[in-house]
C-alpha cells in the first residue's frame, strides 16, 4: 500500500484492453510512483449459469468469455514486459473498486470513457466516490473515432439518424492530423496491495467451466497481439483494401472470411479504432484509387461510430417501447419459432448453417447476419427483434450494445431502414454465392452428402435421394418451419398495416392501440387462411 506521501494511480481496464493508443493508461502512468492496472471480474458476467440456453454465464456465451480471458492474459503479458502486471479483482465492480481506491490511497483514477448504459451508471457511482475523496479523474473518449456526446450536442441534442447526415456532422476526427501514441516504454511499478484480494487472470476451468462445455473452439484468439497482427495482415493486401466493397463480399466464405474479422478486437478495444483508422488512411495513400464510405473499409468504421452516436442519443435504444426512433410493431412472441431459429432447426439449411456458425464461432459475415435477422423478424417468422437481439448479444464474440441493437432495429425495419418489401430469400440468396453449398456442408454435416440440386431445399429431394444422402427430411433434418412464399407475404402485409397505424397515430402508439392492431392482424390472417386454398408444398 502506498504511503500518503507517494502518489498512486489506478488504471481501470474495462474495454480498451490494449497498450497502444490508450490515453487513459498513458495519463495514469505519468507523474506517479505507483500504478495499479486493474480489471474487475464481475461474477454475473463470467461465472457459469447452468440455466442459460447455451454454455456460458447468465450474460455471455462461453466463446466470448474465452475471448475476454485470452485478451486479459495478453494484456497481462504486455504489462509484464513494461515492468508491471494486471491485477484481477473479483466482485461487483463498483464496490470492489471503491474498496481498492481507499486501500491504495489512490490520487488519480483513469479509465476509458464508455457510452454503454451499464457503464454510464457504474461510472457515475465510482466518479462520485472518487471526486468526493478529492481524486483526479481522467476518462477520455478513445473507444470510438468521435465523441458521440459531442456529435449529439452539435445536432441540437438529437443524434443524426442517417449515415450521410452523420458524416456531415462528424467531419474529420480532431486527432487525425498527428500520429497517435502507440508505444509505452515503461510504466510505474505496482504498489503494495494490502488487504485487497488480487488474482491472476483465471482460466475457463478456474471459473468453473468444464471441457465439455467448451465445444468447438472459435478460430479467433483474443488479445492485442493477435489484433495488431490481424490488422497488419489485412492492410498489407493493398489491392484488397482499395477494392473493399462491403455489399459485394461473400457471406459464405469461411476458410478465408470476406471481411477483416476485427470486430471482436474492436469490441474489447484490443484494437484501437482510431489506430485502425490512421493505418487505413496510410494504406489509401499508397494506392491510386480506392472505394469510399459507406462501402469501403473506412466506411465500416464510420458505421460503427454512427451506431454509437445513435445509441448514445436515443433513450431506450435497446427496446421497442419508449424508443422514439423505433416503429411500434405487434411482433409475435412465438417461443417455438424462436427456439427453432435459435437452435438451427428452421429447415432452411442456409439459415440453420449461419446459426450454427454463430454458436460455434461467435462470428458470421455481415450479410449472413442480415439473412438470419430478416428471417426471424420481418421476413418469415415475425418474431420480435428484441428476442433475436438477445440471442446475438449472448453468442457473438463481438457482441456490442450499440452496434447490435442498431443493426437489429435496421434489419427488422423498425428504424433507419424501411423497405420491408425487400426480403432475403432463405434459398436463393446463399445459392448465389455458394451454389455447391460448401458452407452448409461444413456447418451442417448432416447435409454433407445432399446433392447440389437440393442442398438449399432438401425437402424437395425425392426419398431415394434422401436415403442415398443418409439424411431423411423430417427425421435427420427438419422440414421447413414455414413456407417462405406465404410467410413472407404475410409479414409484408403485417408490416404495411403496422406502418400505416404508426403514421396515423404519428408514432405515438399506446398499449391499447397495439392491442387493437394485433387483434386486427390476427383477424386478417384468419380471413386469409379461410379464403386461400389448402397450402401448397413449401417452395422457399
Ligand atoms: P469489416 O467489414 O471488416 O468491418 C470493420 C469493422 O467495422 C468491424 O469490425 C466493425 O467494428 C465495423 N462494422 C462493420 N460493419 C458494421 C455495421 N454494419 N455496423 C457497425 N459497425 C460495423 N457488429 C459488431 O461489432 N457487434 C455486434 O454485436 C453486431 N451485431 C450485428 C447484428 C446484426 C443483426 C447485424 C446485421 C450486424 C451486426 N454487426 C455487429 C455488424 C457487422 O455485421 C459486424 O461488425 C461485422 O460483420 C464484423 O465483421 P468484420 O470485423 O469482418 O467487419
UniProtKB/TrEMBL annotation:
Domain Photolyase/cryptochrome alpha/beta: from-to ranges: 7-145
**Pfam families membership:** DNA_photolyase, FAD_binding_7
Q: Which cofactor does it need?
A: FAD
The Gene Ontology terms for molecular function here are: deoxyribodipyrimidine photo-lyase activity; DNA (6-4) photolyase activity; DNA binding; FAD binding
InterPro entries with a match to the protein in the record: Crypto/Photolyase_FAD-like_sf (IPR036134), Crypto/Photolyase_N_sf (IPR036155), Cryptochr/Photolyase_FAD-bd (IPR005101), Cryptochrome/DNA_photolyase_1 (IPR002081), DNA_photolyase_N (IPR006050), Rossmann-like_a/b/a_fold (IPR014729)
UniProt keyword Flavoprotein, yes or no? yes
Upper taxonomic classification of the species? Answer: Eukaryota, Viridiplantae, Streptophyta, Embryophyta, Tracheophyta
Gene symbol? LOC115738109
The record's annotation in PANTHER family points to:
CRYPTOCHROME, CRYPTOCHROME CIRCADIAN CLOCK 5 ISOFORM X1
Keyword tags: FAD, Flavoprotein
Domain of life, per lineage: Eukaryota
Where along this sequence does the record place binding of FAD?
Answer: 259-263, 300-307, 398-400
CC terms in the record's Gene Ontology section: cytoplasm; nucleus
Q: How is the cofactor bound?
A: Binds 1 FAD per subunit.
Q: Which parts of the sequence are marked as the site Electron transfer via tryptophanyl radical?
A: 331, 385, 408
- Which source organism? Rhodamnia argentea
Protein's UniProt name:
LOW QUALITY PROTEIN: (6-4)DNA photolyase
The Swiss-Prot or TrEMBL record describes its family as follows:
Belongs to the DNA photolyase class-1 family.
| A GO BP entry | nucleobase-containing compound metabolic process
Amino acid at each position: 500500500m502506498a504511503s500518503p506521501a507517494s502518489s498512486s494511480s489506478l488504471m481501470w481496464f474495462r474495454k480498451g484492453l490494449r497498450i497502444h493508443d490508450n490515453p487513459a493508461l498513458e495519463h495514469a502512468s505519468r507523474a506517479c510512483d505507483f500504478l495499479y492496472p486493474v480489471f474487475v471480474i464481475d461474477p454475473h458476467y463470467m461465472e457459469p449459469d447452468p440455466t442459460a440456453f447455451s454454455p456460458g454465464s447468465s450474460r455471455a456465451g462461453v466463446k466470448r468469455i474465452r475471448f475476454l480471458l485470452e485478451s486479459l492474459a495478453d494484456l497481462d503479458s504486455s504489462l509484464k514486459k513494461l515492468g508491471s502486471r494486471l491485477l484481477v479483482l473479483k466482485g461487483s465492480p463498483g464496490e470492489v473498486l471503491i474498496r481498492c481506491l481507499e486501500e491504495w490511497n489512490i490520487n488519480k483514477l483513469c479509465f476509458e470513457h464508455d457510452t454503454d448504459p451499464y457503464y454510464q451508471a457504474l461510472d457515475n457511482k465510482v466518479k462520485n466516490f472518487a471526486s468526493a475523496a478529492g481524486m483526479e479523474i481522467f476518462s477520455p473518449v478513445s473507444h470510438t473515432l468521435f465523441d458521440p456526446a459531442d456529435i449529439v450536442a452539435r445536432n441540437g441534442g438529437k443524434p443524426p439518424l442517417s449515415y450521410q447526415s452523420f458524416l456531415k456532422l462528424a467531419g474529420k476526427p480532431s486527432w487525425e492530423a498527428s500520429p497517435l501514441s502507440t508505444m509505452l516504454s515503461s510504466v510505474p511499478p505496482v504498489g503494495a496491495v494490502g488487504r485487497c484480494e488480487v488474482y491472476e487472470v483465471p482460466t475457463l476451468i478456474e471459473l468453473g467451466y468444464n471441457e465439455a462445455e467448451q465445444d468447438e473452439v472459435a478460430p479467433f484468439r483474443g488479445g492485442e497481439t493477435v489484433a495488431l497482427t490481424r490488422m497488419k495482415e489485412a492492410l498489407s493486401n493493398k489491392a484488397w483494401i482499395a477494392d473493399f466493397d462491403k455489399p459485394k463480399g461473400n457471406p459464405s466464405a469461411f476458410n478465408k472470411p470476406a471481411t477483416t474479422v476485427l470486430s471482436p478486437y474492436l469490441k474489447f478495444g484490443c484494437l484501437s479504432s482510431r489506430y485502425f483508422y490512421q493505418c487505413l488512411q496510410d494504406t489509401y495513400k499508397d494506392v491510386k484509387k480506392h472505394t469510399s464510405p459507406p462501402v469501403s473499409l473506412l466506411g465500416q468504421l464510420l458505421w460503427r461510430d454512427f451506431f454509437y452516436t445513435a445509441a448514445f442519443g436515443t433513450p431506450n435504444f435497446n427496446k421497442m417501447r419508449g424508443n422514439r426512433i423505433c416503429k411500434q410493431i405487434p411482433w409475435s412472441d412465438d417461443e417455438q419459432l424462436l427456439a427453432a431459429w435459435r437452435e438451427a432447426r428452421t429447415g432452411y439449411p442456409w439459415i440453420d448453417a449461419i446459426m450454427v456458425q454463430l454458436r460455434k464461432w461467435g462470428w458470421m459475415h455481415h450479410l449472413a447476419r442480415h439473412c438470419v435477422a430478416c428471417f426471424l423478424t420481418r421476413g418469415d417468422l415475425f418474431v420480435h427483434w428484441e428476442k433475436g437481439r438477445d440471442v446475438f448479444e449472448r453468442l457473438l464474440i463481438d457482441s456490442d450494445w450499440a452496434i447490435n441493437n442498431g443493426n437489429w432495429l435496421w434489419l427488422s425495419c423498425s428504424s433507419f431502414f424501411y423497405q420491408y418489401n425487400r426480403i432475403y430469400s432463405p434459398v436463393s440468396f446463399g445459392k448465389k454465392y455458394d451454389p455447391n453449398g460448401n458452407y452448409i456442408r461444413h456447418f451442417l454435416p448432416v447435409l454433407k452428402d445432399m446433392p447440389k440440386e437440393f442442398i438449399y431445399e432438401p425437402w424437395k429431394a425425392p426419398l431415394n435421394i434422401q436415403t442415398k444422402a443418409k439424411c431423411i427430411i423430417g427425421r435427420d433434418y427438419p422440414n421447413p418451419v414455414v413456407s417462405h412464399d406465404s410467410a413472407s407475404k404475410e409479414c409484408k402485409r403485417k408490416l404495411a398495416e403496422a406502418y400505416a397505424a404508426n403514421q396515423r397515430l404519428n408514432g405515438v402508439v399506446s398499449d391499447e392501440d397495439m392491442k387493437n392492431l394485433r387483434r386486427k392482424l390476427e383477424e386478417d390472417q384468419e380471413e386469409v387462411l379461410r379464403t386461400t386454398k389448402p397450402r401448397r408444398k413449401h417452395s422457399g
